[in-house]
């Protein structure tokens, strides 16, 4: 290949480096650079043609016939027009124009630009194969169009040097674009992974809140069902008791509806977690009020609180203990109506926190319709205890009572 000035190749979109992917539409920058390459090629064709027609040519010996000068100019124009299609068919155009490099001086600039495009956008082995073929045609060029100033081998060596420089430049541009593409893909992948982590965190938070609401709703609805059942089987109760039970039913229904609205809002929208602040979650300090609710519903509950340094109990451990007691009282109201319930909480730092709920095993069929349940309450409690690093036991013990007991770790600090 003969010497020529090669303009900087236009920057392509990342997908252009992969020949299997569809070509993107030509951008404004591509149009500008392609126009510049075309104009430079036209100027070179004009310069090479005028030089070949001069009595003392500079680049190569004068052609013996005028029609050869015109043919060389025509070949240069054809190769210049082909530059507009080099982005789509770089290999095809390189192979098609390669024979012209053996004798055409006017086509030198557009051929080198096509060759540069091939090096940038095709695999290295393909570029090296075309380079080897170009070096062969370069040897023929020095024979057909000998330089008027220097001898054959120096002229051939100059062609080899120029070809290798274009090869090195194209491989550098290709490596740089691949690096930029790799960094861009990494950044996009990191951003996608970050968005996925945020989405997963939100989903986990919604699931956690929904689980909390499930426990609260089960507790409140069991209270509501218990009072409604009392009114059903005691139609002759005093008016004060009826009014008090109706008030508890109304308050429980309103609270259950409020909790239901909150959980539906959490599960409906992505932004609900940040729009409304989450209500304070109960801890072990709220156990007396929880027991008071059950006593108001007619359940006999005995609370034994033997916790030392309760103010140092971690919030998460206290919340888990509260949910365990809540689930135990709810199960007692559902499956052992009328049975006395013993709730015991004890523990100290380093020794752990022990929570135990015990009630007599129900005898015979329950009076009236049983309170329906989801069957997942103990499963959720077991998951909570497991996440807290504790142990959970539930079932009928040797004395015949139903026992729900859990041990939760309580670090010293």
UniProtKB/TrEMBL annotation:
Residue intervals passing through the bilayer: 31-47, 67-85, 92-118, 124-144, 151-172
Any single Gene Ontology cellular-component annotation: membrane
Enzyme Commission number(s): 2.7.13.3
Gene Ontology molecular-function annotations: ATP binding; phosphorelay sensor kinase activity; protein dimerization activity
Residue span of region Disordered: 1-21
InterPro entries linked to this entry: HATPase_C_sf, Sensor_HK_TwoCompSys, Sig_transdc_His_kin_sub3_dim/P
Assigned keywords, A-Z: ATP-binding, Kinase, Membrane, Nucleotide-binding, Phosphoprotein, Transferase, Transmembrane, Transmembrane helix, Two-component regulatory system
Signal transduction histidine kinase subgroup 3 dimerisation and phosphoacceptor domain residues: 205-270
Protein name per UniProt: histidine kinase
Organism: Micromonospora zingiberis
Upper taxonomic lineage: Bacteria, Bacillati, Actinomycetota, Actinomycetes, Micromonosporales
